[in-house]
Amino acid sequence: MKRLERLFLTMLVAALVSCNSNDDAVEAGIEIPGITITDDADCCSAEEALQVYNFLQTVKIVSELQTVVDGQYNVFVYTPTGDFHQGYNDVYFVATKRSSGNYVKDFNVNNITPLMTMTKMGMQHSTPVGSSIESFNDGYLAVKHGWVSLLMPTSENGTWQISYSATVLGKQGGVTNADIAVSALPDGQEWIKSFKNGDDTYFLSLVNPGSWKTGTNAIRAYVSKKSSDVKSPYKLAAETFTIDIDPRMPDMENHTSPDNVALKRRDDGSYEGLVNLTMTGRWRIHLTVRDAKGSIVAGGDTLDDGFSSLYWDVTI
Asked: How far is CA 167 from CA 71, 164, 207, 282, in A?
């Protein structure tokens, strides 16, 4: 046992040592496939590069969206699955130096613009998009995170493209109108819904319910407002709402669950609450949206069965 403990401590120390040269990195036990660690202030140290490399093993590249900036830098785009689906999608960006493969810290991404072309209707529209692209999880300076929430899947009726701008060490680049495929969610999953308030249309994007389990789960969502120019990305709504939730199981006589907490707006613009899912199966989370004064603006008990016409479906 002591031998195993010593081996574990040796490996842990090696992984935490920060190095500035390739030789030092090898001596510290930090070797990263495809990356040459050099004394370059623009790039990650060995420790930082290892953190980014390990994170990227948990996501998959979207090859359609990668690009080269100024002939010197690669920009790569990742999602959890390497593709896109209807509803909320996390999107990650990484820039590297082509000469060494190491990750660049000084880069920015903006102007993410998804655009759907409705072929039979002869029109185009965008979709909800996160308000900013920021460093991921504080410590990952070389990974930028954003999100898009896609209104519908690709079909014979419509196709999707995405554009974005990238600046790497002051050099400009990006991608324009790259085709992407957007898959439909499986049966029993509906993660994006819309409602009207006056003349405005809003969208409720449920964040990553695919990771939920039985019991109490943090529930997170965004409220976006349709742009007056429908081809421009739909940004977070400036108004503050409260979203009451009433989870029911349609296949189990619509029984509910206790101890659910309404979603309220946080400083970052997201809405968070708690949902208690007491068993596996399909849950319909009925929604009631209230404005800052507490008045109902969408949802509520509006169907013949007494439940809200505004809901998310989640199957666990």
From this structure: 13, 10, 28, 44
Residue 71: what residue type?
Answer: G
As a whole number of angstroms, the distance between CA 17 and CA 31 comes to 12
**Position of tokens 């439909």?**
184
Separation of alpha carbons 77 and 64, rounded Å: 9
Q: How far is CA 256 from CA 72, 226, 251, 274, in A?
A: 56, 32, 12, 14
Q: Provide the residue type at 64 as one letter.
A: E
For the stretch 275-307, pLDDT in tens is 999 999 999 999 999 999 999 999 998 877 789
Dihedral sign of CA atoms 165, 167, 171, 175 in order: negative
Residue 36 CB partners (closer than 8 Å, separation 6+): 22, 100, 101, 102
> Could you tell me the pTM of the whole model?
0.89
In tens, the pLDDT along 87-146 reads: 999 999 999 999 999 999 999 999 999 999 998 888 999 999 999 899 877 667 899 999
How many angstroms separate the Cα of 303 from the Cα of each of 139, 261, 289, 310? 47, 22, 15, 9
3-state class (DSSP) for residue 14: helix
Using CA atoms, how far apart are residues 186 and 242, in angstroms rounded to an integer? Answer: 28
